[in-house]
Amino acid sequence: MESRVRILLLVISLTSGLLIAICAPVFAAAPSDNEQDQVIQPRIDRKEIKEAKIDTEDFEIGTFVGLMSVEDFGTNTVYGLRAAYHVTEDMFIEAAYGRTDTDKTSFERLSGAADLLTDDERKLSYYNLSVGYNLLPGETFIGSKRAFNSALYIIGGIGSTDFAGDNRFTLNFGAGYRLLLTDWLALHVDVRDHIFDIDVTGEDKTTHNIEISSGFSIFF
Amino acid sequence: MRTNAFLFIILQCLLINLAFGAQQNQQVQVADPYLELRTGPGRSYPVFYVVERGKWVDILKRRTDWFKVRSDTGKEGWVRRNEMELTLTSWGEKTDFNEAALSDFSKRRWEMGVMGGDFEGTNVISLYGGYAFNANLSGELSLSQLLGDFSDSLMVNISLLAQPFPMWRISPFFALGTGIIDTSSRKTLVQSQDSTDQLSHVGAGVRVYLTRRFILRGEYRNYVIFTSKNDNKEINEWKAGFAFFF
Q1: Which domain holds residue B158?
Q2: CA nearest B123 in A: which residue?
Q3: Nearest residue on chain A to B41, judged by CA atoms?
């Protein structure tokens, strides 16, 4: 009797075992929401260096004051604004706007004839877009204890000059010196030649107009 | 009195902001034998300090490809980007500054640039901005100043640009558009003729991906100016310049 019960239990356990063995893959294959979600969710929360959080200081904006000699029309104070973007440590692009007044030509003064230009036409303003290259970057030593970062750069570009009633295509080139007093404050000294054609003095001629200016700029 | 109090509150806010900002410096750990600190953001500035392996540095600011860092001993100096990329983040992973690359050039949305060139014997300076609707098609608005011997003009154009191969580093494009040109004659001319005319153009050009966010661009356009006289004027324009995208 006892052995029969044992055999029965054995048969039941065997068949159920067999059933489970057969059905298990079927159950496993059956789509189930719980099983599709992984048991352990890898929490990838990488602490990357966020570039946006680093303060980039590639832009430079500043003002300048200086002297500009306009061929035939005398030398006068020039003042203006400049903005630059530093593309690499060597190269930068610059946009500048400046204005100056001009005097009478010697012809107008000596001959006593009618003025060539009206007062409004005598005002000169220019804008230009230039590319600069830091030719001699390095340090400037002032005294024996202080060293400032500085660079001597060459610069050139195109623009337009509004003078004597017309806009004139203008090439400019020159050189400048940038002395960084701090990381973000710079002192500039610039020499620039503005070349444009003018026809108010009788014939069309190419003029060279030299500008010497100095100013401060800040990096941001 | 009230304004004083107000100013004081604003000042306080600013100071709190500054203090808060100071805490947000990101830190990296030196993984190479040492990290060289230079006195300025350029290869010509001397190395004045080295930070040893395993030490942490704060990133203070960035100028072009140089980073200003502060060591745990309080020394501040400039480190080149390729050296910064050999450091580790707080998760022990390589630092990556997510520089813009060629793939970003292909996926750019906004583009702005300046170009100079020749407009049938007249000098032209133009400024433009564009928006890409998808990888192939973009719209552009350009403002040009034409400076000639007998006249100067302002020209505004809108154009549609098709770029068949956006994945290429040197990628050609075709343009079609319309605009307005406003011409005023030189003051010194006896007979001055000022006019405002409509014009349309077709063109072709090429964009060359340079580095980071910069593009070199050259293009040719053929304009037809619908003058108030009966005959239309055809003009060839050649321009080159550079642009950046974001």
Answers
A1: 103-245
A2: A169
A3: A89
- Does B13 map to a domain? no
Establish whether this prediction's ipTM goes over 0.85.
no
Which one of B71, B97, B123 terminates a domain?
A: B97
Take residue B79 and report the two structure tokens written for it: 């480190």
- B88 and B113 share one domain: no
In this complex, the residue of B61, B90, B148 whose CB is nearest that of residue A55 is: B61
What pLDDT digit, counting tens, does each position of B195-227 carry? Answer: 888 999 999 999 999 877 889 999 999 999 888
Gap between the Cα atoms of B237 and B223, Å rounded: 8
User: Among residues B76, B86, B20, B18, which one has the least CA distance to residue B45?
Assistant: B76
**One domain, residues B164 and B206:** yes
Question: What's this model's pTM, rounded to 2 decimal places?
Answer: 0.74
Looking at residues B148-159, what average pLDDT do you find? 88
Rounded CA gap, B31 and B84, in Å? 10
A58 to B63: CB separation less than 8 angstroms, yes or no: yes
pLDDT at B17: 47
Q: Establish if B18 belongs to a structural domain.
A: no
| Structural tokens at position B206 | 């090429």
Residue B4 lies in a domain: no
CA distance A106 to A111: 8
pLDDT in tens, A34-88: 555 667 766 655 555 666 678 888 899 999 999 999 988 999 999 999 999 998 8
Q: What topology is assigned to A51-219 in CATH?
A: Porin (2.40.160)
